[in-house]
Structures are given as C-alpha cells and as structure tokens.
Amino acid sequence: MSTLLPARTGNAALAARDLRHVWHPCTQMQDHESIPMVPIVRGEGAWLIDADGRRYLDGISSWWTNLFGHANPRLAAALADQAQRLEHVIFAGFTHAPAIELAEALVRITPPGLERVFFADNGSAAIEVALKMSFHYWLNQGHGEKTRFIALTGSYHGETLGALSVSDVALYRKTYAPLLLTPILAPSPDAYEGEPGESPAQLAARRLGELRALLERHAHETCAVIVEPLVQCAGGMRMYHPDYLAGLRRLCDEFDVHFIADEIAVGFGRTGTLFACESARVRPDFMCLSKGLTGGFLPLSAVLTTEAVYAAFYAEYNAGKAFLHSHSYTGNPLACRVALETLAIFRDEPVLERNRVLAAHLAQRLAPLRDHPHVGDVRQTGMIAAVELVADKRTRRPWPAGERRGLRVYLHGLEHAALLRPLGNVVYFMPPYVVDTAQIDHLVDVATAGIERAVA
C-alpha cells in the first residue's frame, strides 16, 4: 500500500481522515469541529500549498524553523545525497563525517570559547541536556548542593518536564506543575514592562539589580541562570535590551553560576546577528541550538559548552563522572548533513545583510499600527516583529484570553493566503528569509485587516 496520499484527494477528505486518528500539538482538538484543519501537500519558497491548491504565505516559518524556504533545492539535494550514503548509525562509540564537520563548523561560528558540541534531536531535548550537564558539572566538582535554576518571568524553554520546569508560561506549566521542579524566577527585562519614561536600557539595569539580589540569596544552591537572549518568544515575543545579557554574564562570573543561552528560536540570524548573544558580545557557558539549525528540514539540536565543563566529566570509568544522556537519533547523519548545508548558505550568500533590508521594510510597514486604538505596542528585533493587541490603549489592559481575539487574526489569515498564528493577543511576524518586500507587504496588509476584525 502506498504511503503517499493521491494528489486528487482534497482538503475535506484529508482533514476527515486526519481527525479520525491524529492528535495534534498545542491544540484543543474539539476546535476542529469549527476551525479548519489545513492539509498541506507542497511547499515552495515562502509559500505552503494545500490539497485544494490554495496558497498560504508562511509568516511564522512553520513554528520558527524554516530559514531558506520550503523544499529549498540546495538543502533537498544535500539530504538526498546523504540518504544514499548513510541514514543513521548509533552515536555511542561510532561517528561519521557530517557530525564531525558540523561540530567543527558550529565551534567556528559561535562565540569563542564554546569548544564542545553535544547533539540531541529537538529543542526541548537540548534544554534537558544543558540543565543536566550544568547540575552534573557542579556535582562532579563537589557541589551537590547546587540543584536549582534561575529563569526569567514569562520565559519558555520547551515542554518536556525539565524544560517546562524552567518555563513560566502558565498555559503550558499550570497543569503539570505537580510534576515539575520549582525554579527561582527573576523579573524579566521585557521592555514592555518598563515604567513610563524608562528606557529599555534603564529597565535592563534595574532588572539586573533584582537578579543580583536573588543571587546573593540563592547562588549557593543555583546551578545556572537560563534565558532566551533578546526575545522571549513563546511568552509573547517579549524583547529586551542587550545590556541585560552583558550584565548577566558578569553576575554569573561573580556568583559562580552557569549562564545557559537558549538560542533555539533566536539563533541563526533571527535577531540581526547570527546569534543573539553576539549583540552583547557575551559567551554563555551553554548555548542551545535547534529549529533553524537544519533550515526547517529535519529535527536536530546541539548544546555547545566550554572545555572547562567538558573536563569536569573526563575521568576514569570507575570515577562515575560520565555524562549520562542519550537519544536514539543523536547525531543523525541526515540532519547533520542538512545542517551543514544550511550553514553553507550563510557562508555563501549575504543572508544577514539582506535580512537587515527586509527588517527595515517590515518596521516601516508596521509603524502606522502604533497609532491604532487597540495596539499597546509594536516591537521588533531583527526579523522578529510583534503587535500587542489591547482592550484599552491608555492602560494597556489586555483582552480577556477567553475571547480569543488572536484566533480571529489567524482565521482571517487563512482566508487571505497567509499563515499567521498569534500568541494569545500578540500578532507576530517571523517569516523565512526568502520573503521579498511584496510578500512582507502582503503579510502586514492581511494582519492589519485581521486586527480590525479581531477588535471589532
């Protein structure tokens, strides 16, 4: 029996088959009694095409993974070539050229001092690795009392139990709270939360003072501080000043705790530099990468760390210091090969320079929304932009979550050839880097009309 659905099968038939058996992520499945399930059969650059031939401009890079377009021929060719050589091999005691070359390439392009690469297969797994590795480092150093982590309010790091433990988005965390570790929460430097007249840099300085106070009380029991550099994505595209990262690095050094940078969503050019940490010229102790690492083709993640961390695990077998973490698909050759080709596109093409032009155009197009009576904020960092919808502009009073205003924007987008998937009442843009200015215009025009529909 063929595993490929026949081309003549349309949206309605495929959606009905899907809903008989498939359970989708981050979804109340009952919603699909009224909200369409959209079967996608083909991708083409920044476009997705459904089974009825309708096209949708992918304004969110399919959950922030896609960098260089769907069905990118260069990435597809690398994948096809590797599939004819080696699809997978156990990564304990064995290795292969794509993983070796990818590790070498990542060490070259990430902040100096990150010398060791541990592969996993998704973003949440990378966070699990970093948390366990930080804790285990301190244990191996004779500091078993360090068992806690500091995270920012409004943070999101994934949905496995460890990653969820250092997250602070109630939608994801509340139900599973009895199963989770309890993090120490530091106030986010989110510029939207600043006092009237307070600049993002001033707010960052104030929040660093509050973090210092937390470390003075808790550093003795703290393994690491974990942050999403510059943009707290799933928490509502909250953005902050790079000074916070520089200050965080200094505080981590002063109080002898690790700095974990979750660059899973913000890495690979999203914020204007290749990695968000570059904006503050800092090197974390652990850098977690995924999503754009393979250009959106295959699941893969990597945790980069220092030689000092690696050395704390390097000992005779009987010392019991080895890092115990594994995934069946660790270092998968197909994913590593596609990741290498993704990095080669950055090397061969002026990606970041082009992104700056696109980001400037996006900023110009979004600027008029600042005056909208139901827009509390328009913010942007590189190729990530967000529009905060509010019930009252003066007080920034939000719409009640149960009214699902953002859903109205999503549905309007589907009706007008755009994939927009707001985070609650935050309409955001994170398109693939292959969009042109006309496509950005289309996304903004559709979103603007969707906002009018949402606040009506």
UniProtKB/TrEMBL annotation:
Required co-factors: pyridoxal 5'-phosphate
Protein species of origin: Fulvimonas yonginensis
The protein's role, per its UniProt record: Catalyzes the transfer of the alpha-amino group from S-adenosyl-L-methionine (SAM) to 7-keto-8-aminopelargonic acid (KAPA) to form 7,8-diaminopelargonic acid (DAPA). It is the only aminotransferase known to utilize SAM as an amino donor.
Record HAMAP family: BioA
PROSITE patterns, A to Z: AA_TRANSFER_CLASS_3 (PS00600)
Enzyme kind, highest EC tier: transferase
Protein localization: Cytoplasm
Residues with N6-(pyridoxal phosphate)lysine modification: K291
Annotated keywords: Aminotransferase, Biotin biosynthesis, Cytoplasm, Pyridoxal phosphate, S-adenosyl-L-methionine, Transferase
Binding sites annotated in the UniProt record for pyridoxal 5'-phosphate: G123, S124, D262, H327, S328
Documented EC number(s): 2.6.1.62
Subunit structure: Homodimer.
Catalytic activity entry: (8S)-8-amino-7-oxononanoate + S-adenosyl-L-methionine = S-adenosyl-4-methylsulfanyl-2-oxobutanoate + (7R,8S)-7,8-diammoniononanoate
SUPFAM superfamilies hit by this protein: PLP-dependent transferases
Site (Participates in the substrate recognition with KAPA and in a stacking interaction with the adenine ring of SAM): C26
Transcription keyword on record: no
Pfam families in UniProt: Aminotran_3
CDD domains given in the database record: OAT_like
Pathway(s): Cofactor biosynthesis; biotin biosynthesis; 7,8-diaminononanoate from 8-amino-7-oxononanoate (SAM route): step 1/1
Alphabetized GO MF terms: adenosylmethionine-8-amino-7-oxononanoate transaminase activity
Designated name of the protein: Adenosylmethionine-8-amino-7-oxononanoate aminotransferase
PANTHER family membership: ADENOSYLMETHIONINE-8-AMINO-7-OXONONANOATE AMINOTRANSFERASE
Family: Belongs to the class-III pyridoxal-phosphate-dependent aminotransferase family. BioA subfamily.
Positions that bind substrate: W63, Y156, K291, S326, R421
Gene: bioA
Alphabetical list of InterPro entries matching this protein: Aminotrans_3, Aminotrans_3_PPA_site, BioA, PyrdxlP-dep_Trfase, PyrdxlP-dep_Trfase_major, PyrdxlP-dep_Trfase_small
